[in-house]
Design brief:
four-stranded antiparallel beta sheet, 5 helices, Methylamine Dehydrogenase, Chain H, 391 residues
């Protein structure tokens, strides 16, 4: 009789206890068979550090619905306004990531929030054809508020939750912006209307065609000039001193957002559905100065740096990209696994941080320069960084 050796093994070594467990795989831990194990671990640690630099330094949760718009306070570096789809407007302190105030402003999607240069109040618009004016005196006298008695504080907070003025419009309003020097507001919807802050009827109305105007922005330098984008793929230039629109150019696809360069009076950039951003000179709209490429889906929003040398864009591809104002390609791209479709993006007034809002109800803070060191820096280190930047 020949000898027969039977190979037997225990099922516990390869079967899962439940279907949620991972499959057990055999592995030989002999270091002679894995000569590059240390090198691989070093590279993984290095990649992790680089990846953490590109990720947002912090993100805030507090909204119970998708964040629609972000607006910076014109005078206070650390104050941010966020508007949500459930009608809430939250006022944040960027220094400690604290929500200072939550205002139930509307019963529908808040389309935009704008703040005059003096910062004493702000305006909000929604889909229900209303423009509301809200008090911000408690924010300007923040230190004095905490020194008041509780009854006076309660009265002041009630004033903050009640609109100062409400304007009813004849047509839905999709966007609002304020004049930098005069008490004027400009809105867009079925047409473009110019309002004075204390009046309930528009001063002027413009229309060019029958399509809806979805975005409009005042020029921060030439204050009486505004540019708007329409659903018929056109860009329209307005001068509020005239009774008719100034110029019009039709693009290949619709534009979603517009932003003026804060340092060059004639330059503005539009975020388009063709996956690109187009920079124009308003004196010659026939051809763009530059077409900025890199997004792989529609561009939703953009904002310029206070220096005017760069701008940041947010795309439907769930990425944030930073472009030079004259560069064709982006110098940086930010993304995270958790971040969903972006709704708005803003560049902080000190040009060091980028703020973004997205569909999963979060607001994130990113570094404008991914390699920049945060916090206290020793004198020799700061001197070395300065020398490197010069060279």
């Amino acid at each position: 009789m020949p000898k027969v050796k039977v190979i037997s093994r225990s099922a516990d070594n390869y079967l899962r206890e439940t279907k949620n467990d991972i499959h057990k795989l055999p592995r030989n831990y002999d270091p002679a068979l894995h000569p590059f194990a240390v090198n691989r671990e070093y590279q993984r640690a290095l990649n992790s550090i680089k990846f953490s630099l590109n990720h947002s330094s912090d993100h805030w949760t507090g909204h119970s619905d998708s964040v629609q718009k972000l607006t910076k306070h014109p005078n206070k570096l650390s104050v941010l306004f966020s508007a949500a789809c459930n009608g809430e407007v939250k006022i944040w302190n960027l220094t400690n990531c604290h929500c200072m105030r939550t205002i139930k402003a509307h019963n529908s999607i808040v389309r935009n929030v704008c703040i005059p240069q003096h910062g004493k109040y702000f305006f909000s618009v929604d889909d229900s054809q209303t423009i509301k004016q809200w008090n911000l005196s408690w924010l300007n006298n923040d230190e004095q508020v905490f020194e008041m008695d509780s009854e006076r504080q309660c009265q002041l907070m009630q004033m903050a939750d009640t609109p100062i003025n409400t304007i009813l419009t004849k047509n839905p309003v999709y966007f609002i912006d304020n004049h930098r020097q005069k008490p004027y507001l400009i809105t867009c919807g079925q047409g473009v209307e110019l309002w004075e802050e204390n009046r309930t009827q528009p001063l002027k109305s413009w229309s060019w065609g029958i399509d809806t105007v979805n975005h409009i922005r005042f020029n921060p330098i030439e204050n009486d000039i505004a540019v708007a984008s329409s659903t018929d793929r056109s860009l329209i230039l307005y001068d509020i001193r005239k009774s008719q629109p100034a110029r019009k150019v039709v693009m290949a696809m619709r534009s979603n957002a517009i932003c003026w360069n804060p340092m060059e009076a004639f330059i503005f950039t539009v975020a388009n559905e063709d996956y690109d951003l187009h920079t124009f000179d308003m004196r010659k709209l026939k051809f763009p100065l530059q077409v900025h490429k890199d997004h792989i889906s529609a561009v939703i929003s953009l904002d310029y740096s206070p220096t005017g040398r760069e701008f940041v864009s947010a795309g439907y591809d769930k990425t944030i990209r930073i472009f030079g104002s004259r560069e064709r390609r982006s110098r940086e791209v930010y993304h995270t696994k958790r971040m969903q479709r972006l709704t708005d993006v803003a560049w902080s007034l000190d040009a060091r941080y980028i703020l973004s809002s997205s569909d999963e109800m979060d607001i994130r803070i990113w570094k404008a320069n991914a390699s920049e060191k945060l916090g206290f820096v020793k004198r020799l280190v700061s001197l070395a960084i300065f020398v490197i930047k010069i060279n």
